[in-house]
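=== RUN LOG ===
request id: a7f3
mode: sequence -> structure
chains: 1
length: 259
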Amino acid sequence: MPTIRDQAIVLRTWDFSETSQTVALFCREHGSLRGLAKGSLRDKAPYSGGFEPLTAGEVIAIVKPTTELATITEWDLQRIYRAPRTDLRAHYAALYLIDLVHNFITDADPHPRVFDMLDGALVAAEAGDGVAAGLLALQWTLLDEAGYRPRLDLDVKTGQRLSGKRLGFDPERGGLTGDSGPEWRVRPETGEVLSVLEATSSPLEVVKGMEMVSVERAGRLLAAYFRHLLQRDLPTRALAFPSLGGRIEDSPKGARVLP
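=== RESULT ===
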Protein backbone atom coordinates (compact mmCIF):
# COMPACT_ATOMS: atom_id res chain seq x y z
CA MET A 1 0.00 0.00 0.00
CA PRO A 2 1.54 3.34 -1.05
CA THR A 3 2.36 5.92 1.59
CA ILE A 4 2.22 9.60 0.65
CA ARG A 5 3.69 12.67 2.32
CA ASP A 6 2.34 16.04 1.21
CA GLN A 7 1.37 19.56 2.17
CA ALA A 8 -2.37 19.80 2.77
CA ILE A 9 -5.15 22.23 3.63
CA VAL A 10 -8.03 20.92 5.75
CA LEU A 11 -11.32 21.41 3.93
CA ARG A 12 -13.75 19.51 6.16
CA THR A 13 -13.91 17.21 9.16
CA TRP A 14 -16.56 14.78 10.43
CA ASP A 15 -16.75 12.79 13.64
CA PHE A 16 -16.29 9.12 12.78
CA SER A 17 -16.61 7.86 16.33
CA GLU A 18 -16.13 9.17 19.86
CA THR A 19 -12.38 9.24 19.34
CA SER A 20 -11.78 9.42 15.57
CA GLN A 21 -12.50 11.73 12.63
CA THR A 22 -12.78 11.52 8.89
CA VAL A 23 -11.10 14.45 7.16
CA ALA A 24 -11.19 15.98 3.70
CA LEU A 25 -7.81 17.37 2.72
CA PHE A 26 -6.62 19.19 -0.36
CA CYS A 27 -3.03 18.12 -0.99
CA ARG A 28 -0.60 20.02 -3.18
CA GLU A 29 0.79 17.03 -5.10
CA HIS A 30 -2.01 14.48 -4.65
CA GLY A 31 -5.21 16.53 -4.92
CA SER A 32 -8.27 15.86 -2.80
CA LEU A 33 -7.81 13.17 -0.18
CA ARG A 34 -10.31 11.74 2.28
CA GLY A 35 -8.92 9.86 5.22
CA LEU A 36 -9.56 8.40 8.63
CA ALA A 37 -7.65 9.91 11.54
CA LYS A 38 -7.89 7.28 14.27
CA GLY A 39 -7.81 8.65 17.79
CA SER A 40 -7.70 12.30 16.68
CA LEU A 41 -10.33 13.32 19.28
CA ARG A 42 -8.54 11.81 22.25
CA ASP A 43 -6.95 14.06 24.85
CA LYS A 44 -3.54 12.81 23.81
CA ALA A 45 -4.15 12.51 20.08
CA PRO A 46 -1.31 11.16 17.95
CA TYR A 47 -1.53 14.18 15.63
CA SER A 48 0.22 17.51 16.11
CA GLY A 49 -2.35 20.31 16.46
CA GLY A 50 -5.41 18.26 15.49
CA PHE A 51 -7.61 18.68 12.43
CA GLU A 52 -9.69 21.79 11.88
CA PRO A 53 -10.95 23.39 8.65
CA LEU A 54 -8.91 26.33 7.37
CA THR A 55 -5.63 25.03 8.73
CA ALA A 56 -2.67 23.61 6.84
CA GLY A 57 0.15 21.22 7.55
CA GLU A 58 2.06 18.15 6.44
CA VAL A 59 0.20 14.86 6.19
CA ILE A 60 1.43 11.29 5.92
CA ALA A 61 -1.22 8.82 4.82
CA ILE A 62 -1.55 5.25 3.62
CA VAL A 63 -3.65 5.13 0.47
CA LYS A 64 -5.61 1.93 0.00
CA PRO A 65 -6.79 1.12 -3.54
CA THR A 66 -9.64 -1.00 -2.17
CA THR A 67 -11.26 1.77 -0.09
CA GLU A 68 -12.13 5.43 -0.54
CA LEU A 69 -10.67 6.38 2.84
CA ALA A 70 -6.94 6.65 3.33
CA THR A 71 -5.44 6.05 6.77
CA ILE A 72 -3.92 9.21 8.20
CA THR A 73 -0.83 8.18 10.15
CA GLU A 74 0.79 11.56 10.86
CA TRP A 75 -0.25 15.21 10.81
CA ASP A 76 1.95 18.21 11.56
CA LEU A 77 -0.06 21.43 11.89
CA GLN A 78 1.96 24.24 10.34
CA ARG A 79 -0.43 27.11 9.63
CA ILE A 80 -3.67 28.50 11.05
CA TYR A 81 -5.29 30.99 8.68
CA ARG A 82 -5.99 33.93 10.96
CA ALA A 83 -8.25 36.21 8.90
CA PRO A 84 -11.23 33.79 8.71
CA ARG A 85 -11.11 33.58 12.52
CA THR A 86 -11.10 37.32 13.16
CA ASP A 87 -13.12 38.86 10.33
CA LEU A 88 -16.65 37.76 9.35
CA ARG A 89 -16.33 38.70 5.67
CA ALA A 90 -13.06 36.79 5.40
CA HIS A 91 -14.68 33.87 7.20
CA TYR A 92 -17.56 33.68 4.72
CA ALA A 93 -15.20 34.00 1.75
CA ALA A 94 -12.92 31.27 3.08
CA LEU A 95 -15.85 28.89 3.63
CA TYR A 96 -16.92 29.41 0.01
CA LEU A 97 -13.41 28.85 -1.36
CA ILE A 98 -12.83 25.56 0.42
CA ASP A 99 -16.37 24.45 -0.40
CA LEU A 100 -15.74 25.22 -4.07
CA VAL A 101 -12.47 23.27 -4.15
CA HIS A 102 -14.07 20.36 -2.30
CA ASN A 103 -16.97 20.15 -4.77
CA PHE A 104 -15.19 20.98 -8.03
CA ILE A 105 -12.02 18.89 -7.86
CA THR A 106 -12.23 15.12 -7.97
CA ASP A 107 -10.27 12.82 -5.67
CA ALA A 108 -6.64 12.11 -6.52
CA ASP A 109 -6.55 14.86 -9.16
CA PRO A 110 -3.54 17.04 -8.31
CA HIS A 111 -3.62 20.76 -9.01
CA PRO A 112 -0.58 22.46 -7.42
CA ARG A 113 -1.55 25.85 -8.89
CA VAL A 114 -4.96 25.66 -7.24
CA PHE A 115 -3.38 24.62 -3.93
CA ASP A 116 -0.94 27.55 -4.03
CA MET A 117 -3.71 29.97 -4.99
CA LEU A 118 -6.02 28.72 -2.22
CA ASP A 119 -3.23 29.15 0.29
CA GLY A 120 -2.45 32.61 -1.10
CA ALA A 121 -6.09 33.68 -1.07
CA LEU A 122 -6.54 32.63 2.56
CA VAL A 123 -3.42 34.55 3.54
CA ALA A 124 -4.36 37.59 1.42
CA ALA A 125 -7.65 37.89 3.33
CA GLU A 126 -5.67 39.41 6.18
CA ALA A 127 -5.34 42.62 4.13
CA GLY A 128 -8.23 45.04 3.70
CA ASP A 129 -8.86 44.43 0.00
CA GLY A 130 -7.51 40.89 0.04
CA VAL A 131 -10.86 39.15 0.44
CA ALA A 132 -12.28 40.21 -2.94
CA ALA A 133 -8.91 39.68 -4.61
CA GLY A 134 -8.62 36.16 -3.23
CA LEU A 135 -12.15 35.23 -4.24
CA LEU A 136 -11.57 36.29 -7.83
CA ALA A 137 -8.06 34.87 -8.17
CA LEU A 138 -8.95 31.43 -6.78
CA GLN A 139 -12.09 31.12 -8.90
CA TRP A 140 -10.20 32.11 -12.05
CA THR A 141 -7.37 29.67 -11.33
CA LEU A 142 -9.78 26.83 -10.60
CA LEU A 143 -11.66 27.42 -13.86
CA ASP A 144 -8.39 27.60 -15.79
CA GLU A 145 -7.03 24.39 -14.25
CA ALA A 146 -10.26 22.49 -14.80
CA GLY A 147 -10.53 23.48 -18.45
CA TYR A 148 -13.40 25.94 -18.06
CA ARG A 149 -11.55 29.23 -18.48
CA PRO A 150 -13.98 31.71 -20.07
CA ARG A 151 -13.40 32.69 -23.70
CA LEU A 152 -12.78 36.41 -23.76
CA ASP A 153 -11.10 37.34 -27.05
CA LEU A 154 -13.83 36.24 -29.47
CA ASP A 155 -17.60 36.27 -29.36
CA VAL A 156 -18.56 32.74 -28.29
CA LYS A 157 -21.62 32.87 -30.53
CA THR A 158 -20.24 34.30 -33.76
CA GLY A 159 -16.50 33.69 -33.50
CA GLN A 160 -15.91 37.35 -34.35
CA ARG A 161 -13.83 39.77 -32.36
CA LEU A 162 -15.77 41.58 -29.66
CA SER A 163 -16.38 45.27 -30.19
CA GLY A 164 -18.51 47.93 -28.61
CA LYS A 165 -19.67 48.33 -25.04
CA ARG A 166 -22.53 45.82 -25.06
CA LEU A 167 -21.28 42.57 -23.54
CA GLY A 168 -22.98 39.48 -22.24
CA PHE A 169 -21.77 36.22 -20.74
CA ASP A 170 -23.12 32.99 -22.19
CA PRO A 171 -22.71 30.27 -19.50
CA GLU A 172 -23.59 27.48 -21.94
CA ARG A 173 -20.77 28.42 -24.31
CA GLY A 174 -18.49 29.63 -21.53
CA GLY A 175 -17.51 33.11 -22.59
CA LEU A 176 -18.32 36.65 -23.62
CA THR A 177 -20.68 37.61 -26.40
CA GLY A 178 -21.72 40.89 -27.95
CA ASP A 179 -25.32 39.74 -27.87
CA SER A 180 -26.54 40.29 -24.32
CA GLY A 181 -30.14 39.34 -25.07
CA PRO A 182 -30.95 36.26 -22.92
CA GLU A 183 -27.44 36.04 -21.44
CA TRP A 184 -25.98 37.73 -18.39
CA ARG A 185 -25.18 41.34 -19.11
CA VAL A 186 -21.58 42.24 -18.23
CA ARG A 187 -20.04 45.65 -17.77
CA PRO A 188 -17.02 46.42 -20.00
CA GLU A 189 -14.92 47.02 -16.89
CA THR A 190 -15.64 43.47 -15.73
CA GLY A 191 -14.53 42.10 -19.09
CA GLU A 192 -11.31 44.12 -18.83
CA VAL A 193 -10.55 42.63 -15.41
CA LEU A 194 -10.96 39.10 -16.76
CA SER A 195 -8.78 39.93 -19.78
CA VAL A 196 -5.99 41.05 -17.45
CA LEU A 197 -6.28 37.77 -15.54
CA GLU A 198 -6.06 35.83 -18.79
CA ALA A 199 -2.75 37.51 -19.61
CA THR A 200 -0.98 36.94 -16.30
CA SER A 201 0.55 34.00 -14.46
CA SER A 202 0.16 35.78 -11.09
CA PRO A 203 -3.56 36.55 -10.81
CA LEU A 204 -3.61 37.28 -7.10
CA GLU A 205 -0.87 39.91 -7.26
CA VAL A 206 -2.37 41.54 -10.35
CA VAL A 207 -5.86 41.66 -8.87
CA LYS A 208 -4.64 43.41 -5.72
CA GLY A 209 -3.75 46.47 -7.81
CA MET A 210 -7.12 46.75 -9.56
CA GLU A 211 -10.19 48.79 -8.67
CA MET A 212 -11.97 46.71 -6.04
CA VAL A 213 -15.47 47.45 -7.35
CA SER A 214 -14.59 45.83 -10.68
CA VAL A 215 -12.81 42.98 -8.91
CA GLU A 216 -15.92 42.26 -6.84
CA ARG A 217 -18.13 42.31 -9.94
CA ALA A 218 -15.83 39.90 -11.75
CA GLY A 219 -15.88 37.62 -8.70
CA ARG A 220 -19.68 37.58 -8.72
CA LEU A 221 -19.72 36.73 -12.41
CA LEU A 222 -17.43 33.72 -11.89
CA ALA A 223 -19.47 32.61 -8.86
CA ALA A 224 -22.58 32.59 -11.05
CA TYR A 225 -20.66 30.63 -13.70
CA PHE A 226 -19.61 28.03 -11.12
CA ARG A 227 -23.23 27.71 -10.04
CA HIS A 228 -24.13 26.96 -13.66
CA LEU A 229 -21.30 24.44 -14.08
CA LEU A 230 -22.15 22.60 -10.87
CA GLN A 231 -25.87 22.71 -11.69
CA ARG A 232 -26.56 23.60 -8.09
CA ASP A 233 -25.85 26.35 -5.63
CA LEU A 234 -23.33 25.85 -2.86
CA PRO A 235 -24.76 27.07 0.47
CA THR A 236 -21.59 29.02 1.16
CA ARG A 237 -21.88 30.98 -2.11
CA ALA A 238 -24.67 33.14 -0.67
CA LEU A 239 -22.41 33.99 2.28
CA ALA A 240 -19.52 35.12 0.08
CA PHE A 241 -21.70 36.85 -2.55
CA PRO A 242 -24.96 37.84 -0.85
CA SER A 243 -25.87 40.35 -3.58
CA LEU A 244 -26.35 37.49 -6.05
CA GLY A 245 -29.24 36.18 -3.97
CA GLY A 246 -30.78 32.93 -5.07
CA ARG A 247 -30.54 33.80 -8.76
CA ILE A 248 -29.11 36.35 -11.15
CA GLU A 249 -30.86 39.66 -10.57
CA ASP A 250 -33.40 40.91 -13.11
CA SER A 251 -32.99 44.36 -14.56
CA PRO A 252 -35.99 46.64 -15.13
CA LYS A 253 -35.91 45.65 -18.80
CA GLY A 254 -35.91 41.95 -18.01
CA ALA A 255 -32.29 41.21 -18.96
CA ARG A 256 -30.31 39.22 -16.43
CA VAL A 257 -27.69 41.50 -14.96
CA LEU A 258 -24.71 40.79 -12.78
CA PRO A 259 -24.28 43.72 -10.37
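=== NOTES ===
The helical segments are 83-86, 88-104, 112-124, 130-146, 188-198, 203-208, 212-230, 237-240.
Residues 246-259 have pLDDT under 50 and may be disordered.
=== END ===
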